Amino acid sequence: MKNKNHKNLSKHLKAFDKAIISWRAPEYTYHQKSSLWFLVAGIIVLALVIYGLVTDGWTFSVAMIVFAGTYYLFYRSEPPVVDVKISTFGIKIGHHVFPYSNLRNFWIVYDPPSVKRLYLRMASKFQPDVFVDLKDTDPAELRKFLKQHLKELPSQHEPFSDTLVRLFKL
Q1: To the nearest 5 percent, what fractions of the chain are helix, strand and coil?
Q2: pLDDT value of position 81
């Protein structure tokens, strides 16, 4: 039985070799930050660390330092660029494969130059939505193809959390 499932998976993954639509996009959204941004963030972290120490919440202070250090290490370099491929089987973003059977809906937020994204809603309610930047991909062509495989949520907007991340360059 395992061999049969492996052959089916291989057959479906080969569908991405004949992608209908493809482009390259950063693996995650990267925001260039100024020295002022790091100064303000450092002051906020320092204030939270002092607050934690003053209120005997030393674990909170340690957590803030670890969080700030991890954030700095993670975001000091630009994200790798991955291939995005749309096929008759599903959507592949880098090494992540999303068969249409695992997806429930899609929507496109297109407000250049600030937002050009494809959002995917998973069939499982326990999995978060996934998004990928469209770069120079034609949203009308993408929408037309995806509507053959998924239900579109045309009235959806950019999630509030994504708007905050974009505005505060987090």
Answers
A1: 45, 25, 30
A2: 93
